[in-house]
Amino acid sequence: MSDAPVITPALAADIAPVMVVMNEAFDPAFGEAWSAGQCLGILGLPGVWMVLATVGEDPAGFALCRIVLDEAELLLIGVRPAFRRIGLGRSLLANVEQTAKARGAACLHLEVRDGNPAIELYRHHGFAETGRRKDYYRGREGRIFDALSLSLSFAVQNASNMES
């Protein structure tokens, strides 16, 4: 893994490598992964974009997002286990934030399963909890998990950067 990750816009034609990441990044016990059909179905809608991260020739991570008016939403983000702990999740999230701002977003929202280790990444990026959906995720073995709604205001983020 000596190659640096490269993040590029992804199109419908890139669904195969995205699904390689999807199938490895999301634990099937939680039912969080999307099918190729679900990804392709939303990818064709206005305001939706996807990025793919590769390391060398290997698909390593992706993010799927949308923007409506001035609110962006991170629908999915995943990194294959072999490419975790090298900063790829942070790079994907930074790319999403930059793209959302460039598309006119004032904030970025996401939902995440309570207990998901990615919550640490989101909090590090300045996301704050704005709500909770009780019993939202249903695991394969009958366990039920809340969904946390997190949000990042770019106005607050920009003000913090000006003070630094």
* Broad CATH class: Alpha Beta
Major sheet strand order: 1-2-3-4-5-7-6
Q: What pattern of helices and strands is seen along the backbone? A: EHHEEEHEHEEH
Helix content: 25-40%
The CATH topology label is: Aminopeptidase
How many E-type strands?
7
**Average pLDDT rating:** 91
- Estimate what percentage of residues fall within beta strands: 35-45%
Q: How many strands, which pairing sense, and closed or not: the largest β-sheet?
A: 7 strands, mixed
User: What is the architecture at the second tier of CATH?
Assistant: 3-Layer(aba) Sandwich
Tally of contiguous helical segments: 5
Q: What is the CATH homology-level superfamily?
A: Gcn5-related N-acetyltransferase (GNAT)
Question: Which outline best applies?
Answer: globular
Q: Please, could you describe this protein's structure?
A:
With 164 residues, the protein is an alpha+beta fold. The chain has one domain: Aminopeptidase. The protein is 31% helix and 38% strand. The chain is built from five helices and seven strands; from the N terminus they run E-H-H-E-E-E-H-E-H-E-E-H. The protein has a seven-stranded mixed β-sheet with strand order 1-2-3-4-5-7-6, sandwiched between helices. The longest helix has 15 residues. The protein is globular and about 40 Å long. The termini are far apart. The relative contact order is 0.15.
Provide a compact summary of the structure.
The protein has about 160 residues and is α+β, with helices and mostly antiparallel strands. The protein has helices spanning about 15-25, 35-45, 90-100, 120-125, 155-164, and strands spanning about 5-10, 50-55, 60-70, 70-80, 105-115, 130-140, 145-155.
